[in-house]
Amino acid sequence: MIHDLFFAPFAMGFMRRALAGCIALSLAGPPLGVLLVLRRMSLTSEVLQHGILPGIAIGALLGGGAALGGPSLWAMAAGGFAAGLAVVLLAGVLARATGGREDSQLAGLYLLALAAGVAIISATRGIDLVHLLFGSVLAVDAPGLLLMAGAASLAVLGLAVIWRPLVVESFDPDLLRAMGGRGSVWHLAFMALVVLCVVAGFTALGTLMSVGLMMLPAVAARHFSARLAGQVGAAVVIAVLASIAGLLLSFHADIAAGPAIVLAAGAQWAAGLLLGRHASLRARFLT
Amino acid sequence: MTPPPAICVAGLSCRFGTARAVEGLTGRFAPGSLTAVVGPNGAGKTTLLRSLAGLHPGHAGHIDRGGLAARRIALLPQASTLDRSFPVTAGEVVALGGWGEMGVFAAAPAGLAGRVEAALAQVGLAGFAGRGIGALSAGQFQRVMFARLILQDAPVLLLDEPTAAVDARTEADLVALIRAWHAEGRTIIVVLHDLDLVRALCPDTLLLAGEAVAWGPTEQVLTAGNRLRARLLAEAHGAPQRRAA
Fold first, then answer.
1. What number of CA atoms fall less than 13 Å from residue B27's CA on the CB side?
2. What is the rounded CA–CA span in Å between residue A33 and residue A186?
3. Deepest of A29, A200, B7, B171, by most Cβ within 10 A of its Cβ?
4. Which of residues A21 and A91 earns the better pLDDT score?
5. B19 forms bridges with which residues in the sheet?
6. What is the pLDDT of residues A39-93, one digit of tens each?
7. Are strands B19-29 and B156-160 parallel, antiparallel or unpaired?
């Protein structure tokens, strides 16, 4: 019974590949998500995952327009990465030029990017729009897994390198600048890593939910720890649990895997919100 | 600590967006001086401090730090500018005072933890190193920020409203620390609103209202006439008024 429920599904190759890919995303995304939350940039991740769509579409166009896999996968990833970086830079320029009203600029960018991406894809034969928007983690093949694991590894290593100045810059940017540190360098390096993770996530979760394994665990982790290291650890654990639970849910209940994983992460967020140790309803009303 | 040089400004002008914040400021902060910066809200006090710390770009005129690198000038920002829900401990915030010694990639210097503990003890928070800053009161948080200044050990200190929103006992303790730093020969420039405190603490005062209304010995600066002029200047420039100088 237990074996059938929890272990038998992973006897199948496609489930194992999906799990490996999701665990890669779970190790790389949540630490970045925790910092996005602390830097009050949660919505930026949302913008980025739509922002990469035009790049992915152009990449698919140039890479042969085939389905995921083969040269078009790498072309799509490269296109998505370039588009994501462009959105980061454009958002920064717009925010500075308009005196800091960054949220409205981001809302505009996000709509335009999504529309442009869908427009390009709709004009191109042979690309499955649903596939790109919602992902298909159960269809991840070896090259797809390599892309996810490679990008996730790069993101973890990169974050380890910039961790200290990034955290200081998040808490007290003036201190870092006064000490001669260039805050914008760390910010841009950080955003590049976020884009990398968003690109890594799109094959599994699609460009509509690519940051699901990055942001939901990070938001939930706030309720389980009041320490940065604790929040990062909790977020990774939540993401791994969501990956396993989501894939099992998808297998047994026959619902799409991407949304199942995101919903499983959302369930843990709800649990944290209700019962967590910090800033939860329980902490507020029962203690 | 190396003895501080004089800090001189000549024709210093700063803009904040399109509005002018400081206009044509010229003067000298002598080595080891303790100067209050007072003035109505919007008078450019914070902007002046940030310029001196090298944080406000695009100023016209000149700042001469006498060869002292901007990083050797410690700035205490207004407490409200920091996110007190950030998941770090008091000890970690204090340890940031040692940033100059470790920088981005170097290992933390040996004995840093001990110095952090000692600095916290000096501000009356012995044993608080492991506490999250979210659990601290406003006064305790400001004590932590002072402990960070102790670790920075800078010859020049810029303090932006160090006693705002703290209880009377904390204020007395923090003022005692400022006095001790002054006695050690450090140059201190402190933005204050409480004029009684200014008279009690600071030998010199700069009365600012966009431009310098008066700069010199405190009793000669804080006259009724000067304060009225500052108020009128601020009103003429449309600065928001909450508390007059």
1. 21
2. 16
3. A29
4. A21
5. B16
6. 988 888 888 988 999 999 898 888 765 455 556 888 999 999 999 999 888 888 8
7. unpaired
| Cβ–Cβ below 8 Å for B71 and A179 | yes
Answer whether A225's CB lies under 8 Å from A234's CB: yes
Distance between CA atoms of residues A154 and A160, nearest Å: 10
Question: What is the spatial distance between Cα B230 and Cα B225, in angstroms, rounded to a whole number?
Answer: 9
Neighboring chain B residues of A175 at a CB cutoff of 8 Å: 75, 96, 99
Side chain identity at residue A109, one-letter code: L
Q: Which CATH architecture has domain A2-280?
A: Orthogonal Bundle (1.10)
Q: In Å, how far is B83's CA from the nearest CA of chain A?
A: 7
SS3 label, residue B24: strand
Residue B92: CB atoms within 10 Å? 21
- The residue ranges of every structural domain in chain A are 2-280
Q: How far is CA B135 from the centre of its chain?
A: 24
Phi, psi of B205 (to 5 degrees): -140, 140
Q: Is the CB of residue A232 less than 8 Å from the CB of residue A240? A: no
CA distance B55 to B57: 6
User: Which among B50, B88, B99 is the nearest to A175, CB-wise?
Assistant: B99
Please work out, in degrees rounded to the nearest 5, the angle formed at the alpha carbon of residue A88 by the alpha carbons of A265 and A174: 95
What are the structural domains of chain B? 1-68+155-245 (3.40.50.300), 84-154 (no CATH)
Can you give B30-78 as a three-state secondary structure string? CCCCEEEEECCCCCCHHHHHHHHCCCCCCCEEEEECCCCCHHHEEEECC
**Amino acid occupying residue B175:** V
Report the alpha-carbon angle A99-A35-B72, nearest 5.
Answer: 70
At B222 the three-state DSSP class reads: coil
Nearest beta carbon to residue B71 from set A180, A228, A230? A180
Range name among A103-107, B46-50, B176-180 with the lowest pLDDT average:
A103-107
ipTM computed for the complex: 0.86
What six digits make up the tokens of A159? Answer: 């974050």
